[in-house]
Amino acid sequence: MATIRAHGIASQLPSGFEAKIFVRDVPVGVAHAVAQFATFPLPDDVGDFGSGAVSLMGPVDVYATLFEYGPESLGTVLFARQGRPSPLSPGDFSPTVLRRGVPGQSGTQWFFTEAGRPFSFYAVLGSHLQRALLVPRVNTLLASLTLSPPAPQTPSDRVAWN
């Protein structure tokens, strides 16, 4: 298994997954970490929550984003859950959760705090009808994550690919 690690996020990638972890450049304010995982080739220019990628998914593909929010989100009701969601069940996925509805797909989104950092975990399944087959892959990905306080950032360390 390949390991990817950057910005206080690490994953020993499950079989069939590729990933990138980065901090997007922002003109004003502080940017935070984004980790994207997929069972299909991730295009270079993918939106934080998968725009530009989820339309490329096949019915047995999985896409997931781990998106960090700023410290102002700590302690809010939205991020009250301590620790990532796990295990997820097929009932946790719905076509109505998708940010960009692609017919046949299904999604889930969870807000939580872990390692003193507020995150959203958003996952898309290539087929709502095959979610019983695909959700275990999402759970394996969730279990592979290690979240820790971020290391100091340098300009050359903004993106990690696997």
Instruction: Count every beta strand, where a strand is a DSSP E run of 2 or more residues.
Output: 9
Strand order of the biggest β-sheet? 6-7-5-4-3-9
* Structural class by helix and strand composition: mainly beta
Which regions have little confidence, pLDDT < 50, spanning 5+ residues? none
What's the end-to-end separation, in Å? Answer: 11 Å
Major sheet, described briefly? 6 strands, antiparallel
Strand portion = 25-35%
Q: What is the ordering of alpha helices and beta strands? A: EEEEEEEHEE
Query: What is the assembly state of the chains in this entry?
Result: single chain
Report the principal-axis shape. Answer: globular
Integer tally of domains = 1
**Count the helices. How many?**
1
Annotation keywords:
9 strands; mainly beta; 3-stranded antiparallel β-sheet; 6-stranded antiparallel β-sheet; 1 helix; 162 residues
Description:
The protein has 162 residues and is mainly beta. It has one domain. The chain contains one helix and nine strands; from the N terminus they run βββββββαββ. It has a six-stranded antiparallel beta sheet with strand order 6-7-5-4-3-9, with helices on one face.
